[in-house]
Structure formats: C-alpha cells, structure tokens
Design brief:
Elements: H1 5-10, E1 17-20, E2 31-34, E3 48-52, H2 61-73, E4 78-82, H3 92-101, E5 105-108, H4 114-148, H5 152-164, E6 167-172, E7 177-181, H6 186-190, H7 193-200, E8 207-210, E9 224-230, E10 238-244, H8 250-289, H9 293-303, E11 312-319, H10 326-343, E12 348-354, E13 357-365, H11 369-380, E14 384-388, H12 397-414, E15 418-420, H13 421-426, H14 436-455, H15 460-469, H16 474-481, H17 485-499, H18 506-518
Parallel strand pairs: 2-3, 3-4, 4-5, 14-15
Antiparallel strand pairs: 1-5, 6-7, 6-10, 8-9, 9-10, 11-13, 11-14, 12-13
Helix pairs in contact: 2-3, 4-5, 4-8, 5-8, 8-9, 10-11, 14-18, 15-16, 15-17, 16-17
C-alpha cells in the first residue's frame, strides 16, 4: 500500500501537527510537491501532499478560502504550511476553510525542512514498489507451479482467489461456468452470465470492470468485479472473473495479469490438442458417412473414446452466398464440443469447403445436448443456417447426411435458421424449384412459347398452364380460358410443334408443369 497522510504524521522526526481534516488522514500520498504559487493546480495530477510557506496565499479569508477550494478540487490529499517565514502561525481562516472542505491541513514547524517530508514519502513509495515487485514475482512463481501441475486451470483459479483475498471464476468459451473458488462464490459468479456474454461477442482480449457490486448481488454481498476474456487470436477461449472487497491494487493487478497470461497459454495449449482431436474426429466422421462404421468403431475405441451410441442425427451448417461464416462455424464447432464434454456426450465434427461454401457437419445424439447447442448457436448468428436429418442409426449416417444437406438447401433458400428433414419430406417439392439450374432449364424449355406469345396471336403459355392444371380436360380448361375447346386443341398442337415434344408423354407434362411453377417461385 502507498504511504498515507496518517503514516507521514506518525513519523515523530517530522513533528507535524494536524490542524484540520483529521478524519481524512487515510488518503494515500502519491507524491510531495512544493509550490509558492497562489494557484499551483496546473502543475498537479492529484494525490499530492502540497507544501508551501504561504508567501502568496493572500491575507483575507476569501483569498484563503479560494486557495483551499482550488487545491481540494484538484485532488490534493493534504496541505502542509511551513511556519516561521511568511506566517508565524497558520492563519485561522485557512484552518476553517480546510475543515469545511475536509482537506487535511498540517502545521510544519520551522526546524522541519520540506525536503525531510519528501524523503519520508519517497522512501515509503520505493518500499511499496519493491514490495509490489517481490510479491508479484512470488505470485507468478506460485501460479506457474500451479499451472504446470495436475488440474492446472483449477489450481490457478484457486491460488489466484487466495492471493487476492476474494473469489475467482473461470468460464469456458461458451460462457458456461467451469471452475469457481472458493465454492461459496458460485452464486456470485453465476450472476455474471450477462457480462460474460457481452465479452463473448467482442474480440479477445477484452475486459470489463464492475465497480461497486456484482449485478444482482445483494447489498450485503457487494464487491468489485473484473471480467477478462482469454484468447490469443481474437476469439475468446474462456473468461476469468475475480471479485474483491476493495478495488484491485497495482500489485494485485500484476498478479491478475500473470493469471490471465497463464490461463491463456493453458487454453491455447489445450486448443492445439483439441485441434488434433478435431482432425481425428473429422476422419472418423467421413468413415462413418462412407459406411465404414465397423472400422470407425475400432479406431475410435482406442484413440477417441468411442462413437455416439443410440439414435443420432446429422446436422450440416452453412451460410448463403457472399456471407463469411468462418467465425460463426468455428463458434458452432466449439459450442458443440463444449456441450458434449459437459455431459460426456460423444460427437463427431468435420468442416469442409466446397463449391457451395464452407460447411460444418456434426453427428450427435438425437435431441441431445450437442443437438440443442447447435440449434442455439444458429439462432444467435445472422446468415447462418442449419439442416437437420431425420433420426437414424449410426449405420445410416450416409443417408442422414444427404437429408441434412437437402434440409440446409431449403433453409438457405428460404432464409430460415434451421430446417428438419421431416419438414422437407412432409412439405411440397415446389420450394426446391428456386435453384439457378432449375430456373435456367425452365426458361430454356418455355422460351419458344414465350417468343410466340410476343409475336403472334394466342396465349400459348397461359393455355398450357390451364390445360395442365385441368389434367388435360379440354372442356374445363377451355372454360377457364374463355375460349372454344377447338381453339384450345389448336393451341396445344402448336405447343407440340414449337417444343418438338408430345403432350401425351407423362414425363413431358411433368417437366412443363414444373417449369411453369418454377417461374412462379
């Protein structure tokens, strides 16, 4: 702790007397400054003990009061007036003004040189800095040993809480609380979810200070909280929160920074291991999708801890054209793995970049924690969509993957966040007709009819649509068009001539109907 006015006054060699502001002597002294100016505030930063002989103080009560107000407003922590030169004693109006503003006023006797006071404060400040360096070094060594031991992150959080005399909590990349120390602080740490979520949406590293009390905490539990994101490549891998009774001192800040650095290194090291596991998981997923389930089981049993057991779903995530979904897909993969690890659920994840852009495939238990986490992530990210297969056995994963891809195509085309395969199967085929290739086919097929309608009599496109919608019933279709059925027969023969196709062919009828409907989508 820095020296205080009280510690300076207690130094008997200085023979200082407190004339006003005795209730404010615990203020820390950051420096000693000597000035004979009537307004020294332009040269002050706050936190100083100002010493003066009062040569230019002025003699009237108004002048002395104005002088005290200027010092108090500038953040001066105390005023020392040396007697014996300009003033034989401290002026009473100065004492009254200092008492009114709560500014400690010290009488400095003539035998005490100002330099002696400066030396006392400088020595105390140097001792504080030495203590801070020594304490920080010891804390770094202690935290480093903890990080290198078993359960490194847990040990670091516990040692940090003990060092700060408060509590500490570690959250994973999704914002879920993973470690808290001491145990009684779990309630406080749990109430920081909103603040952690705000930091999760900002590039790492970033921090937030909640001075006064934690959000939602009772007055009896008020504390000072600092939340810091952990990560080295702009994406947060985790979050650290600490709570203390008082504001964090510079020494404690050094300790906190050391813990942040160690936890970041630990998480990044864990990330490298996870990346190796991700590559293994991606290879296993591709084996499963290719139908090599038995081989995948043998490999996973020894190296991956096994495959998902029970009914599974395949989920495929992606974004529309022109949307950079790299970070969103990365977060989706992280959140899926974190959800699985929390409940011990196995999953397989693979990322691929193809002609339709980046895709993330996840194979997980039907309606399990991973499945629910993926649905939650796509709801948070604009432009990201998810296709979900029907429930399937692991041996049917290849078919499930195809279902998920089709569901994703429907979701992207309709601007929806997620689509289940059941919705695709139970709905209409018409929403699938928006593909560029289908549109181009329809335009090419119907072009001769549309060119005819622009240059000759007879609306062949409308007549064809009416005839097909009436399943080839001449009278009903002619009535819809308001023409004679012989006119309609002539028009249909003209359609066959222009297209070079027979309307008696069921496949031709189907293609023409889909082409007409494609233009309507």
């Amino acid at each position: 702790m820095p020296p205080t006015l009280a510690s300076v006054v207690r130094n008997t060699s200085l023979h200082l007397t407190v004339l006003a502001g005795a209730d404010h002597l615990e203020r820390p002294v950051r420096w000693v400054h000597t000035s004979e100016l009537d307004d020294p505030t332009p040269f002050l930063e706050g936190g100083e003990l100002l010493l003066t002989t009062g040569i230019k103080l002025g003699r009237t009560a108004a002048q002395l009061q104005a002088y005290v107000h200027r010092l108090a407003d500038a953040g001066v922590v105390g005023l020392g007036l040396g007697v014996g030169l300009s003033h034989t004693e401290v002026p009473q109006p100065l004492v009254e003004a200092a008492a009114q503003r709560g500014l400690p006023l010290l009488r400095v006797p003539e035998p005490t040189p100002f330099i002696a006071i400066s030396k006392v404060v400088s020595a105390a400040l140097a001792a504080e800095q030495y203590e801070a360096v020594t304490t920080s070094f010891e804390a770094q060594e202690e935290l480093t040993r903890a990080a290198l031991g078993k359960d490194g992150t847990t040990a670091v959080v516990r040692r940090l809480a003990a060092r700060l005399g408060g509590w500490a909590a570690l959250y994973d990349g999704s914002g879920a609380l993973s470690v808290v120390a001491p145990d009684w602080a779990a309630r406080r740490a749990g109430r920081l979810a909103a603040e952690v979520d705000r930091l999760r949406r900002r590039p790492a590293p970033s921090s937030a200070a909640l001075q006064g009390r934690s959000p939602g905490i009772d007055t009896a539990d008020e504390d000072y909280v600092v939340v810091q994101s952990l990560g080295a490549d702009r994406r947060a891998r985790g979050f650290l929160a600490v709570g203390t009774e008082d504001r964090i001192t510079p020494t404690e800040r050094y300790v906190l920074n050391a813990a942040v650095a160690l936890l970041t290194l630990t998480l990044e090291r864990s990330r490298e291991l996870r990346q190796a596991e991700e590559r293994m998981g991606a290879a296993l997923l591709r084996m499963v999708l290719a139908g090599e389930v038995a081989t995948a089981r043998q490999v996973a049993a020894g190296l991956f801890g096994g495959l998902p057991e029970g009914t599974v779903r395949v989920l495929v995530a992606g974004a529309g054209q022109g949307v950079d979904a790299s970070e969103s897909l990365g977060e989706l993969g992280d959140r899926a793995e974190q959800a699985g690890s929390r409940v011990g659920e196995k999953l397989l994840v693979a990322r691929e970049d193809g002609t339709h852009g980046a895709r993330l495939m996840v194979l997980a238990l039907d309606n399990g924690a991973v499945h629910r986490a993926c649905l939650g992530v796509v709801e948070e990210h604009e432009g990201l969509s998810l296709g979900v297969s029907a429930p399937a056995a692991l041996e049917e994963a290849g078919t499930a993957h195809a279902q998920a891809e089709r569901a994703l195509a429907v979701a992207l085309r309709g601007g929806r966040r997620s689509v289940d395969h059941e919705e695709v199967g139970a709905g209409s085929l018409l929403p699938l007709l928006g593909e560029d290739a289908v549109t181009a086919f329809a335009e090419g097929l119907l072009r001769p009819l549309r060119e005819h309608d622009r240059t000759a009599r007879g609306d062949l496109v409308a007549s064809l649509r009416a005839w097909l919608s009436r399943h080839g019933q001449w009278d009903a279709a002619a009535a819809d068009l308001g023409v004679h059925r012989h006119t309609l027969r002539y028009r249909m023969r003209r359609v066959e001539e222009l297209l070079g196709r027979s309307l008696d062919d069921t496949d031709v009828r189907m293609e023409l109907w889909l082409a007409l409907r494609s233009g309507e989508e």
